[in-house]
Specification:
- The longest helix has 30 residues.
- The protein is mainly α.
- About 70% of the residues lie in helices and about 0% in strands.
- About 10% of the residues have low confidence.
Length: about 325
């Protein structure tokens, strides 16, 4: 599926398929990661998992998944299609042949441009996902505040307070509508600056390690990587990328979970300083273990499904 001047559509379709599979695999741990980074009351990853399961059952891990499933497929389609076509454009410009293998500098430029492009699509997607994932946490915070403000002076145990509270958002569409009404279009891009800090280096440390590992695991330079090699290379690349991106991801998650009515952070720098002063340097590595664990199956599934879909389309 190739159009004029080497532009290929099959990269976008394969990216769409890979994105759908990665969302299903990775969303439960993504919920845990978001709660650890932007929520309160969780001691560690295991405590967070058990708390979600006890209070919300298994369905709690899939909060907000419908929107990512619909939107991240489009997002990954754009990312992989843009990255692959940018590589061909660079090769055409530098070597006069779009099929010429890219060097490390070429891959770096293509990866950074992909990270920059991804924010335009990914920022609203991430914001809606995080707002939906954090709804139960908001209710818990309200209950704790109510318990702490008891007017009669009685000593109320915090965990005994259970005030039913409706969800702020009924679903993804209502969430988008509410944000547009209360915060305007710029509200959908809250945390986009932190996302740039995360995704530009993050995609560089995503595509380059994948390429390196695939080349190392190939039996020879001319052969195609085995599906097991693709799976392993993709998983390792995902873990590396997500772990190194964790500090910026923490800031992004906090900025995006910071709703207008309860706004705490004035901007990225204020979020960084406030988080450091109140919680120390460790806060910027909150969720790193979840990211490492979650990044492997998500990216392994993503790359494997993408490459196999691509092979299928190009064999037609």
């Amino acid at each position: 599926m190739q159009t004029s001047k080497g532009f290929r559509v099959d990269d976008f379709i394969a990216g769409w398929i890979g994105g759908a599979s990665s969302v299903v695999v990775g969303h439960p741990l993504d919920t845990v990661k978001t709660r650890l980074q932007a929520g309160r009351g969780y001691r560690n990853m295991l405590h967070c998992i058990l708390t979600i399961y006890r209070k919300e059952t298994v369905m709690g891990f899939f909060k907000g998944m419908s929107f990512p499933l619909a939107s991240i497929t489009v997002y990954n389609s754009a990312v992989f299609g843009f990255f692959s076509n940018t590589q061909r454009l660079i090769s055409q410009y530098r070597y006069g042949d779009g099929r010429h293998p890219c060097g490390m500098l070429d891959l770096t430029v293509a990866s950074m441009l992909t990270g920059l492009m991804s924010v335009g699509i990914g920022a609203p997607v991430d914001l809606v996902k995080i707002r939906l994932q954090m709804q139960t946490q908001t209710v818990l915070a309200e209950n704790l505040q109510l318990a702490g403000n008891a007017s009669n002076g009685t000593n109320i145990r915090l965990r005994s307070v259970d005030v039913p509270s409706p969800s702020l958002y009924r679903g993804p569409i209502h969430c988008v509508s509410s944000i547009l009404q209360t915060e305007g279009l710029q509200g959908l891009y809250r945390g986009a600056g932190a996302m740039i800090l995360r995704d530009v280096p993050g995609y560089t440390l995503y595509f380059i390690p994948y390429t390196i590992f695939c080349n190392l695991l190939k039996p020879d330079a001319t052969s195609s990587p085995h599906p097991c090699s693709i799976w392993l290379a993709g998983g390792l690349a995902g873990s590396i990328s997500w772990v190194t991106a964790t500090p910026a991801d923490v800031v992004k998650s906090r900025m995006q979970a910071d709703a207008q009515l309860q706004r705490k952070y004035r901007g990225i720098l204020h979020c960084i300083i406030h988080s450091y002063k109140t919680e120390g340097i460790r806060v910027f590595f909150c969720g790193a273990s979840v990211n490492a664990i979650r990044g492997f199956p998500m990216s392994a599934t993503m790359f494997l499904t993408y490459e196999l879909s691509l092979q299928f389309f190009r064999s037609l």
